[in-house]
Write a structure and sequence with these properties.
Elements (H helix, E strand, L loop, with lengths): L18 E7 L4 E4 L15 E7 L4 H10 L4 H8 L6 E4 L3 E11 L3 E11 L2 E6 L7 H9 L9 H36 L3 H21 L1 H11 L7 H66 L15 H22 L4
Parallel strand pairs: 3-7
Antiparallel strand pairs: 1-2, 1-3, 4-5, 5-6, 6-7
Helix pairs in contact: 4-5, 4-7, 5-7, 6-7, 7-8
Length: about 350
Amino acid sequence: MTEEKNLYAPANTDLVKTSVTHYFFSEKEFTVKKNALTADEVSISEPDKNWIRIIGLKDEQLIKDIAVKFHIHPLALEDILHTVQRPKVDEYEDSLFLVLKMFYVKTAIKSQQISFFVKDNLLISFEETNSHCFKKILDKLERGDNQIRKKGEDFLLYLLIDTIIDEYFTTEEKVNAEINKIEDLVNQSPKKIYLTKLIKWRKDILQTKKAIAPLVDVIQTIGRLNIVFFEKENKYFLRDLNDHLLRAIDNLDTHRESVNGLIEMYHSQLNTKMNEVMKMLTIMSSIFIPLTFIVGVYGMNFHYMPELEMKNGYFFTLGGMALIALVLLIYFKIKKYF
């Protein structure tokens, strides 16, 4: 299997072209403004709630201009552009900044960093690539038949994080399916390529857990912070996120144990196969030892050997050797050596 990029590296070698989409919504209205090319084209609509969705980090200057316009702290901006961060939450004067990871499965577990900047009536999300899982939330916003429009940006943040965590379970299901495929192949025939795949999956699962586990502390920290724009009743939803995260981490531990079990099974099957080969070689050696002895005796160059003068001595010797081999085979069969 070809080497995949580290989970903490950007999702793509070539950064995706930056696109900026601005969603305005209130209890009665929903408006979309796409493809803003400059920071001046992005402005907050009062008293509407605002979600500015930035996909792709290629245009650093545009992202920096937007950061300056909406007073995103330079340290937060650095974390947005350098996508090697572990999940974390930082509180600034009137805003909140979060970093977390989203995962998906190809030939291995891959990831991208998603960052959120939240303040009163404004949420800005930064994605390395298009997170299609957010489409469900956009559909609900557009239909207007739910609580999202009635509640603020804090509830929208909860929904986005909840969607990302749901994707963890989707990723885990795909990982489990891949592991089950390898298990079937290992049961059929233990090959070195399967061991290589298992070791790679074990490494990816461990890195995924390391990227998910800190998010538990992030959610708990948000719940403890006294954030003005975060409604108290919406903090209750954070408990549900924690429950989901803990279940996702438990699932990863289960998958890792499954991989470890398959690696042990691979070695066990390999040893069993080797023992079968050694047993057959031992049986064959045991049969040929007395035959080799007979051949060795009659291969000696003594002048006076009575059997050498026998007319049918050659046939008697071959017959005796065949009889000895047959008797040994019957004996080994009775003893259930094979």
